[in-house]
Amino acid sequence: MEQISIAVLMTCHNRKLKTLATLESLFKQKLTKEIALNAYLVDDGSTDGTAEVIQQTYPHVKIFSGDGNLFWNGGMRVAFSEAMKDDPDYYVWLNDDTVLEPEAFNDLLATSSELIKKGEKKAIVAGSTRDPETGDFTYGGIVKITPLLPFKFRFLQPTKLPQPCDSMNGNCVLIPRSVVQLVGNLDPAFIHYLSDWEYGLRARQKGCTVWIAPGYQGTCSLNPQSTTTAAANMSEGLKKMNQPKGLAFKDATLQPWEEWKVFARRHGGLFWPVYWLLPYRRLVWFSVLSKLGFTKNKTEGE
User: Which residues have a Cβ under 8 Å from the Cβ of 153 and sit 6 or more positions away?
Assistant: First the structure.
């Protein structure tokens, strides 16, 4: 059997213990000798000693430094770019807060192999994760609810069989060389959110397919959700909205203006301007209610 090379792409910032737990699960994968793993990790300006302890514990990990302003997309772009120089057979996106099951990579590779045999030679295979405490689904594949609403998605629960989807979360994703040769790197138009979903949608536009593997491949808690009002007024809301992580409401996040415009224009079809502007009605409506005294602003949670 020919050797299969896999480049594992990660980025981190001040989450030393979580990053170490992820790396531990990565290097405990039950793989055959024919599979060679190479990890490319971007430490985006961590001040908690993340890079130093990783270098001591896993000296074979290739570490690249950021200035603290790369965020998820920027960090993953750097790791992706460095890995592309070595032209591996597969790339794996791996979040630094995702702990892999021992057979995770075998699941992804087996699914990829099965799809290739069926003629799906340019197939992205995403893994699904669940909460480490409750066991509830957290991240994985997404599918459109209806073609009439291009940005209304639902998560796809894993089953015992591979399932096609429209795009995916970037927590644990296997991407073959054939897809990267066609689609390239993550888009620099995005800073933190949207870029993983956008990559899957862009890949499908170019003739690739996106799937989820059977079962769960790891654990990952949901990102903390804001439980309080996101902004006191329009000015404050616009300022927060245009920061890399957007403006968080209790049940949704408004993305930075220009990033959402790129996403909407590229994937929203003929009526993309409507889909671009529609989410921001929440900010206008909240500002009106705030002025009328119908809302109570509190300190936003981390």
Answer: 142, 143, 144, 145, 166, 167, 197
